[in-house]
Amino acid sequence: MILWLLTINLASCGGREEVDLLILNASVYTVDGDKPWAQALAIRDGLIVAVGASDALIRDYEGEQLDLQGQMVLPGFHDSHSHLVYGGLELMRCDLSAESEVDGLLQKIADCDQSLATGEWLIGGGWDLSLFESTNPSKALLDDINPSRRMFIRGADGHSAWVSSAALEHAGIEAETPNPSDGVIERDAFAEPQGVLRESAMLLVEKVLPAVTVEDRLKAARLGVALAHSMGITSVIDAATTESDAKAFDALDADQALNLRLVLAMSLIAPFFDQAPLASVKVSERYSDQNVRRASAKIFIDGVLEGETAALLSPYLGGNHGHGMLITPADSLTEQVVALDAAGVQLMFHAIGDAGVRMALDALESAREVNEIQDLRHHISHLQLVDPKDQPRFKALGVTANFQALWAFPDDYIMNINLPAVGMDRVQAMYPIGSLHRAGARIVGGSDWSVSSMNPLLAIETALTRRDPTGVRPEALNAAEAVSLAEMIEAYTINGAYLAHREDQTGRLKPGYKADLVVLATNLFDLTPSEIGEVPIVMTFFEGQKVYPK
Fold first, then answer.
1. Strand-by-strand arrangement of the 346-351 sheet
2. By CB neighbour count within 10 A (0-12 exposed, 13-18 middle, 19+ buried), where does 289 fall?
3. Among 180, 118, 93, 170, which residue's Cα sits nearest to residue 139?
4. How far apart are CA 357 and CA 389, in angstroms?
């Protein structure tokens, strides 16, 4: 009897467990401190069941095998700041993001104009503000293409719009039209609207644009999700989400066509997005296992440096010598932040200028002093300028630093627009990723797509080099603010998972975690930093299913 039982036990040990997929012969970087490197993964029912050496997993498991022949495997990337529907809509319209010269830009607009019927609006986006003096292209350039065409074209920064005379006339904008409280109508020497609208002034035209249909939003969401998959992204915080956008994501998820983990930061205080009601934020979803969670809210603090609407502690050096713009007065903002924090809402702030960053931190500090501390994980995006005195406050207040690292090099925006406006000392202090990391802040990475490329590898490279990943500009933007490859991988994996309240499910490759992963053609640790942005994305998996390429 004892011999029979021993035989049975040995037979059981010798049998192999069934799994759905064995990934073998890979350079697996697990982002798990106890076991950072492995060769193989076993996946079953959307979860990782084993991590280890290839021969060991072949011995213990059987299933479909994928031999990666040394290619790199990472946890799926987390983009902690993107705009999937907004960016998808831009791809469907007159997309100017690829145009780097004025002549090419105007020709593209002319081509778009030719494709439209008489009376249709030309709606587009992505034009590079640095192509024009003072970032102000004239309405006359659009009028020369078609004087009767109503045109509304958002800038690449998302905070400016270029409009034609016909659009201005249709919206009733003229010399006597006052600036809205948190926006600017750029004017010529005779006070006539020049053709550029900043911040909430864009709404003066947007409110008369043709409505975006449900079908348009669904198509845009599909385009955004597909692009994310092609970049190795399996989790996104969608910033400034409207109620209509949220319904599009819900529809995709219900149709099992999402294959992405989403936290929706609903646009509660967002002057140039459709305002979402407080009821659209569902704090109960924070720890649910559903793919779409509405547990967060977006708050805009200020504008952008290129429009001199970012809020600064010291004044701009340009024409108006002002301090920029605050979307909401400090007292009102603090009151709202305290109330939202008490209600359990995770807050995501847009803050570009050092005064804007301080205002967000001050409001969060007030909330901490008044409210019972909850595990909400508030975060501030962009952080182009952060006063050194405020850098330790991120750790002290538990605030995550959400950087768009692809902006951290001396491009035309910084050198041709920001430099005259703020001076070299402040330019060299921009995007203090290294300083905040050394001060103990948790760093996450986001693209702000469609403002810039969604590709995490380009952002990672830029964070390491502080140089233009295209090589056009050789100089660095304060190389002392560079961080390491391991730190940036954490920013795009486990730190992003933490921000989404999913660090116990995603962001690492270890048993029990979701099988969300990306396959890269080359091990990033074998490359020089300047080569990282060129590495191809080979495959993306969501819960063990390949979603890219399809």
1. 77-82, 233-241, 261-269, 292-300, 346-351, 379-382, 400-403, 443-445
2. exposed
3. 170
4. 11
Residue closest to 266 by CA, chosen among 300, 238, 287, 285: 238
- The closest of 238, 188, 194, 189 to 217, measured between CA atoms, is 238
Cα 426 from chain centroid (whole Å): 24
The domains of the chain are located at 2-70, 77-83+213-545, 122-206
Sequence letter at residue 84: L
Residue 85 DSSP symbol: H
Architecture of domain 77-83+213-545: Alpha-Beta Barrel (3.20)
Query: Quick one: tokens of 504?
Result: 């116990």
- The tokens for 10 are 């040995």
Measured CA to CA in angstroms, residue 332 lies from 277, 339, 350 at distances of 17, 11, 16
DSSP 500-538: TT-TTTSSS-STTSB--EEEESS-GGGS-GGGGGGPPEE
pLDDT at 272: 67
| Predicted local distance difference test score (pLDDT) of residue 472 | 85
Note the pLDDT of residue 8.
Answer: 32
- Per run of 10 residues, the mean pLDDT along the chain (length 550 residues) is 34 75 98 95 98 98 98 98 95 92 95 96 91 87 97 90 96 93 88 91 93 96 98 97 95 95 93 82 94 96 91 89 89 96 98 98 98 97 98 98 98 91 97 98 97 96 96 93 98 98 98 98 98 98 97
Inter-residue long-range contacts of 8-14, CB under 8 Å, 24+ positions, other chains counted: none
Burial (CB < 10 A; 0-12, 13-18, 19+), residue 316, is buried
Token pair of 113, please? Answer: 């104009």
Tell me the C-alpha distance between 123 and 106, whole Å: 14
For domain 122-206, the question of CATH label 3.10.310.70 is answered with yes
Q: What is the CATH number of domain 2-70?
A: 2.30.40.10
Structure tokens at 292: 């779409």
Q: Are 29 and 37 in contact (CB under 8 A)?
A: yes
What's the pLDDT at 269?
84
The pair of three-digit structure tokens given for residue 109, joined into one six-digit string:
């607009």
Q: Are strands 183-187 and 193-199 parallel, antiparallel or unpaired?
A: antiparallel
How far is Cα 490 from Cα 424, in angstroms, rounded to an integer?
A: 31
Q: Which residues contact 5 (CB under 8 A, 6 or more apart)?
A: none
Amino acid at 437: H
